[in-house]
């Protein structure tokens, strides 16, 4: 049985929430707090054996966080999917995803139409972005940072050995984004 975080409903002015490496937790009665939340960081502990239970827990939180502007979500290398409820966070302006074992970002990613900044970090199995149509729905996205996602980068096609670039088929999907950084270098 995991830890239950019950006190959040009393924190009606809570703006930022960080839950880092807390063994299995569940959140109940969070509605009052979640209405005011603007920033959240979630990082699982190794006690989360699979992402199904983690996704269910954070998914329930996301459905209540209608005002969330910034989210940092860390996973585990063997977790092959993101929480589906993430697609309902349409007020998100900044999203940081790291350490997931996903091979592709889901097509519903295009629903995050308020997104201005996206960080993809250490997703070592990531090969594909959503379709070009889904990516173009992210019309406010001005900054894309990709680091530690080797399968998304073409190590052979580079100006020099220290400057990997996005694989051609994926580059077409993001060519409309003004600032794309790969390993912290502007492309």
TrEMBL record:
Domain R13L1/DRL21-like LRR repeat region: 84-149
Any one GO BP annotation for this protein: defense response
Keywords: Leucine-rich repeat, Plant defense
Keyword Coiled coil: no
Pfam families per record: LRR_R13L1-DRL21
Gene3D superfamilies hit by this protein: Ribonuclease Inhibitor
Presence of keyword Transport: no
Protein name per the record: R13L1/DRL21-like LRR repeat region domain-containing protein
């Amino acid at each position: 049985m995991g830890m239950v975080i019950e006190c959040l409903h009393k924190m009606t002015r809570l703006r930022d929430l960080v839950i880092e490496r807390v063994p299995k937790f569940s959140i109940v009665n969070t509605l009052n707090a979640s209405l005011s939340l603007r920033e959240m960081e979630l990082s699982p502990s190794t006690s989360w054996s699979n992402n199904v239970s983690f996704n269910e827990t954070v998914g329930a939180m996301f459905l209540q966080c209608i005002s969330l502007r910034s989210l940092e979500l860390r996973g585990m290398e063997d977790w092959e999917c993101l929480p589906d409820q993430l697609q309902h966070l349409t007020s998100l302006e900044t999203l940081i995803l790291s350490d997931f074992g996903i091979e592709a970002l889901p097509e519903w990613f295009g629903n995050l139409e308020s997104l201005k900044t996206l960080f993809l970090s250490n997703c070592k199995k990531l090969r594909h972005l959503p379709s070009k149509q889904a990516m173009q729905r992210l019309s406010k996205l001005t900054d894309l940072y990709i680091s530690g996602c080797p399968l998304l980068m073409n190590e052979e096609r580079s100006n020099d050995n220290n400057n990997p670039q996005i694989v051609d088929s994926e580059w077409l999907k993001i060519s409309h984004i003004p600032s794309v950084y790969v390993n912290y270098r502007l492309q």
